[in-house]
Amino acid sequence: MKNDPNYMSGAEIFFECLRRENVEYIFGYPGGAVLKIYEHLYDVDFLKHILVRHEQGAVHAAEGYAKASGKVGVVLVTSGPGATNTVTGIADAYMDSVPIVVFTGQVSSHLIGNDAFQEADIVGITRPITKHNFLVRDVKELASTIKKAFYIASTGRPGPVVVDLPKDVIASKCIFKYPEEVDVRGYKPTYKGNSNQIKKAAEIISKAKRPLLYVGGGVIMSGSSEELKIFARENKLPVTMTLQGLGAFPGTDPLSLGMLGMHGTYWANRAVDNCDVLVSLGARFDDRVTGKVETFCNKAYKIHVDIDPTAIDKNVIVDLPIVGDVKHVLAELAAEMINPPDTTEWLEQIEEWKNECPLDYEKNDGRLRSEFVIEKIFEKTKGDAVVVTDVGQHQMWTAQYYKYNHPRSNITSGGLGTMGFGLPASIGASFAVKDRPVVCISGDGGFQMNIQELITAVYNKLPLKIFILNNSFLGMVRQWQELFHQEKYSFTDLGNSNPDFVKVSQAFGIESYSTDNPNEVESLLDKAMSINDRPILIEFRVVKEDMVFPMIPSGASISDMMVKRLNPKRMI
Amino acid sequence: MKKHTISILVENHFGAFDRVATMFSGKGFNIRSISIGETEIEEISRMTVVTEGDDKIIDQIVKQLNRLIDTIKVVDLTGSPHIERELALIKVSVPKGSMEEIKNINDIFRGNIVDITGRSMTLEITGPPDKIDAAINLLSAFGIKEIARSGIVALKRGEQIKIKKEKNLTT
């Protein structure tokens, strides 16, 4: 047996499996329990290991890579603190259905449960935030477990999978054989939708007077943006998108209404409120979309296409559920459509709403505003960049003002709302995307949450364009404090406690600039776009007290929408 | 809030029980009783969960259970013919002169006396949960010292649910 060329250690098997899964990059950080793997990694040439500076950064980078490329992101960390540092990233990937596989080291099998050095029950800890997880107890199960992990992460509704690797399992040997196929008895995703239901949906859409497509991240994940474009344009159907859905349909298309929900456009929300048929494609009726469920879209017949049966009737009871992959269902639905509905009047009505209350901000006082910077970034990149954001006001303004032309271009933390996501995720995206600029838009608060990853961007010479919209506040929290918490700006003013972002980035070796002058924005952006062999950082010092509008307060109805600040005197 | 009995076939994997329990607690669903045991197939266990909720909640519970990778088959037995049984061990005080009376109650419920001391008796009673409730109710007149209930196990009446054998892909 020992002479068999396939007689390998767990560490060797690990890499053989990754080779067969066509893994190009691992985002990782070494440590005691995974030393054996790193020992072999030294001689591996078919993939590149990207050293991050904190394990949370590794997971967000893998998410950014996965979202930009459509492939599975891979993370490798050690046991104990290495593993627990991945938890936020894993929870983030779970909420936004991002396919990643996280390999965690574990103490040797015989020590598990003994409170050994750097031991943590990561399988127990991550159980409610993973699609599935595994503890590999025998090297003979390693190859089939890795195969299953990649299969589960990337199929059906994608999600994170954790594989916990005890030190002795990695070190022990067996004959390696990679399974050709996977069979998981309890996991059989439904791809093809029920044909009768689809036929019925086509009939209802054909007869609709005010139909609306409500599109989520599922359209991008299933790779059905092309199908959606054709379906919407042929049938003249207006399209509104969730935060994760942005990019699924071109933002510049006249049929695009932009984002709906809490900070969605006025006209998208009015359309949701007044449509007679709502077709949800790969979206989950999240509370940031619906507000008060009882009043959400309550005049419409609702059709819900989703690959995950649990998404159906979870938040909003629908009239016609179709469980299946959007790509399959859309193809069949398009074929079943006999007559396109007459939507001329409906589109005119939406146009009226658009003119009634367009996205707007103060342009004439000479002060620099986030919305202006984002508009300029859109103009410079023509909507073709991959734009990664952090979480907060800048994220919502980006969703409103950056009109994504392509799927897999909008990378943002939606469900979990993880501050600190932006920078590492944009690093991961930079490895996946070579032909388009990758832009990271962050805030002064969130940027500091994973600021250590600047060095990862520098070391790898990533042509990343990092833009900090610094309003010296935790702006979104401040907004809620002003609107709902008696203007008690409790611990959100960072004005006196922010670092000098230019000096910080210079210390990391990044060329950086700062401005608060609207007239300098274009030239600085031109400079950023012209650099292609290293990162650049620009800090835009924007107005402190701006708020994101429109806004439907949490749990409220569309009739409660605020379109502008009610009391302008609050401007400081 | 209607009571539902849900039968779940799960892979006999490390942590499978915990996945089911974690799903219930994480999503805020109630568990009234839960039991797990082996089945006729070596690598499969059967869990029986008694839960409660309106139609929307039960629909979510069944879907969320199905969504777990380690669950093979989830059936809400409520509303279709099925058998439910529970076992209870009831340790009851025996006041002077009441031994015969307790034995009579035990006979009526077709229980077994499994332990006896001068002052107490332990009865083993099996049956549908309401029968056990009735027995406990009657015995409480004598003073109940301790109770252990197994939780409900249940099976559908009639035909058997066929389970496909998983291909063995381990190296």
UniProtKB/TrEMBL annotation, chain A:
One GO CC term, this protein: acetolactate synthase complex
Pathway: Amino-acid biosynthesis; L-valine biosynthesis; L-valine from pyruvate: step 1/4; Amino-acid biosynthesis; L-isoleucine biosynthesis; L-isoleucine from 2-oxobutanoate: step 1/4
Cofactor: thiamine diphosphate; Mg(2+)
Top-level taxon in the UniProt lineage: Bacteria
InterPro entries linked: Acetolactate_synth_lsu, AHAS_TPP, DHS-like_NAD/FAD-binding_dom, THDP-binding, Thiamin_PyroP_enz_cen_dom, Thiamin_PyroP_enz_TPP-bd_dom, TPP_enz, TPP_enzyme_TPP-bd
Residues in Thiamine pyrophosphate enzyme TPP-binding domain copies: 390-540
Cofactor binding: number and manner: Binds 1 thiamine pyrophosphate per subunit. Binds 1 Mg(2+) ion per subunit.
Signal peptide location: none
Cross-referenced Gene3D superfamilies: 3.40.50.970, TPP-binding domain
Swiss-Prot/TrEMBL catalytic activity: 2 pyruvate + H(+) = (2S)-2-acetolactate + CO2
UniProt keywords, alphabetically: Amino-acid biosynthesis, Branched-chain amino acid biosynthesis, FAD, Flavoprotein, Magnesium, Metal-binding, Thiamine pyrophosphate, Transferase
Transmembrane segments: none
Any one GO biological process: L-valine biosynthetic process
Boundaries of every Thiamine pyrophosphate enzyme central domain copy: 198-333
Translocase keyword on record: no
Molecular function as annotated in GO: acetolactate synthase activity; flavin adenine dinucleotide binding; magnesium ion binding; thiamine pyrophosphate binding
Thiamine pyrophosphate enzyme N-terminal TPP-binding domain span: 8-123
Matches recorded under NCBIfam families: acolac_lg
Stated family: Belongs to the TPP enzyme family.
Protein name according to UniProt: Acetolactate synthase
Organism, scientific name: Stygiobacter electus
From TrEMBL, chain B:
The entry's keywords: Amino-acid biosynthesis, Branched-chain amino acid biosynthesis, Transferase
Pathway assignment: Amino-acid biosynthesis; L-isoleucine biosynthesis; L-isoleucine from 2-oxobutanoate: step 1/4; Amino-acid biosynthesis; L-valine biosynthesis; L-valine from pyruvate: step 1/4
Organism encoding this protein: Stygiobacter electus
SUPFAM superfamilies, per the entry: ACT-like (SSF55021)
Gene Ontology annotations for the cellular component aspect, listed alphabetically: cytosol
Name of the protein in its database record: Acetolactate synthase small subunit
Molecular function terms from GO: acetolactate synthase activity; acetolactate synthase regulator activity
Catalytic activity: 2 pyruvate + H(+) = (2S)-2-acetolactate + CO2
InterPro entries attached to this UniProt entry: Acetalactate_synth_ssu (IPR004789), Acetolactate_synth/TF_NikR_C (IPR027271), Acetolactate_synth_ssu_C (IPR019455), ACT-like_dom_sf (IPR045865), ACT_dom (IPR002912), AHAS_ACT (IPR039557), AHAS_small-like_ACT (IPR054480)
Pfam families listed in its UniProt record: ACT_AHAS_ss, ALS_ss_C
